[in-house]
Amino acid sequence: MTRIVGVHGVGNHRPSATAAQAGEQLSAIWRRALSRGYAPPVDLTVAYYADHLNPRGRQGAADELPPEARELLVAWLEQLDLPPALAQGNATRPVRQALAWLAERRGLAPRLVELFVTTFFREVARYLHADDIRKASRDTVAATIRAHRPSVVLAHSLGSIVTYETLWHNEDLQLDLLVTLGSPLALPHAVFPRLDPAPVSGRGSRPPNVKRWVNIADPGDLVAIPPGGVPLRFTEVAADHTCAIHAFDFHLVANYLACPPLAAELSAHS
Hints:
This protein is α/β, with parallel strands linked by helices. The protein is built from 10 helices and 8 strands. α7 links the parallel β3 and β4 (about 175-180). α3 (about 65-75) crosses α5, α5 packs across α6 and α6 (about 130-150) crosses α7 (about 160-170). The longest helix is centred in the middle third of the chain and has 20 residues, at about 110-130. It is globular, with a radius of gyration of 18 Å.
């Protein structure tokens, strides 16, 4: 039976549960989602680190983001094909208006786009800008991998950033297969240049303790940009699969876990 560790993305804080309970709840969700596309039984557990991000109180909207999160959001907007009226001036750009335009262009509900984007950049900013949160998150992922001893790690969204850094900083963690799902690792300005270890001459690389690295992204995933960016920005990525997982839930981990390229990679690995 294939042993797998999952590393979740944003929006997974469960304040009413203990870390152990939250991890098991997420593990059950991931196992069910994976079984939709990959039939063989697996031993899968999710590393739960969302409690370290510690979102407290009212989350707020795009106009109420802390400066470091707004900085990342604006850097992300610069990668999109915004109309000229929305693409001028970092300090004065009307973020909410830009998100409304994006929602209309994609046929999505503006409120949901704003919620997704602000949640994503708020948690990414917490991770990238707070050394104590960064270390605690990486330590949790490393401890889960050590305890579960997987041959495969599936890392989604922000979890791909945490996992990438964790593997570089813990050489004893040996993996046969790393699969990044909906990963923002290659996101210019907002993520890529802020990684630890930092890119060298504009390139990152596969962690040396990983035998095979595969990336999977929905072409419409708002944060897995630029398309094809992971193999372009990182050396020794064995495969980069494009898979349309859902017209609207383009970043949902359950849809990534059920996608055919992941099932094919796991079948080839087992």
